[in-house]
Amino acid sequence: MAYLKYVPRSGAGPWGRGGTRYYRLLREYTMDALRETLVFLRDYPVYLTYFEAFGTEMSAVPVERIEEHYKPEERLREIASTLDVDVLEERALALADLISDLAGVAMSKMGVTGSILLDIHVPGISDIDLVVYGLRESLAVKETVAEALKKGDTEIRRFDEKLTRAWCYRKSKTHPLTPEEARKLLARKWNIGTFLGTRFSIHPVLTEREAEKYGERLYRPLGTATIRAKVVNATMSIFLPAIYEVELSTVLEGPALREVREICSYEELYASVAEEGEEVVARGKIELVRDLRQGSAYYRLVVGSLRGRGEFIKPVGRRGVSGGLPPDETTT
Q1: Would you tell me how many other CB atoms lie within 10 Å of the CB of residue 174?
Q2: Residue-wise pLDDT tens digits, 283-309
Q3: Domain spans in the chain, listed from the N-terminal domain onward
Q4: Pairwise CA distance, residues 293 & 169, whole Å
């Protein structure tokens, strides 16, 4: 399973390598943009697969058609082992080295992705996108980077006001958020910022041993709903999909469910935006989950589904405590 981001095209955008230019087909990291790539692939149906466990069609590359597997950890090692690097590669390595040192996480547990991974990046335009492997390592990096952003005593910084306004305006156009709501979400994000003036993002990834195996759970859609729920465990919300274990407070709209066990977001925007003890209002697709390992079944709410529209997660704070989004604004 994979999404299509770049396609070779003459006279395309700034990304390129060895005389080949690439057009960025995935214009935004949103489900709307992902749906557009699936429409494009209708002309190349070999790259579309129906995944029975998820009950949906998604883009994927057949194993026999894989020519090269780009590995973030190997690319970071490559950058570290050569003197012939450009300014963006140098900054990516410096950021990874700083985080590794502050968090006590080995560089072997980190990598670089995005356009730098493919070596089609453009210094001055491209961002730094890092990955960190493993649950323990990811939690350590989260704590470290969040503290660095809070203190501001390293080159790891939050967006300045100009970048903040641009980011919030853009999110308000691609998601069911006002610019002010987007600003409140941004204040909760630990994995984006700037380093030496260059934008960066950090993406935690579970190891193969830690990750769920395909087919261990079966997911079936049951319509849409808007719910209010209390977060009881946000540990897995740093990954993608972001998982919040919740206790259902009330169903605001949709099927009259007595229990929703988790909120799952495939929209990275909503990763790590709510903590244990906080309440959220969320709109998305209700799924019945059958856990074949445990022999159990439960309901979850999915944000960022391929067929969904207007899906979101909005923190509303703790009961009796201010700090979230106003409750009367969360269902608009």
Answers
A1: 17
A2: 999 999 999 999 999 999 999 998 888
A3: 6-65, 72-205, 217-329
A4: 44
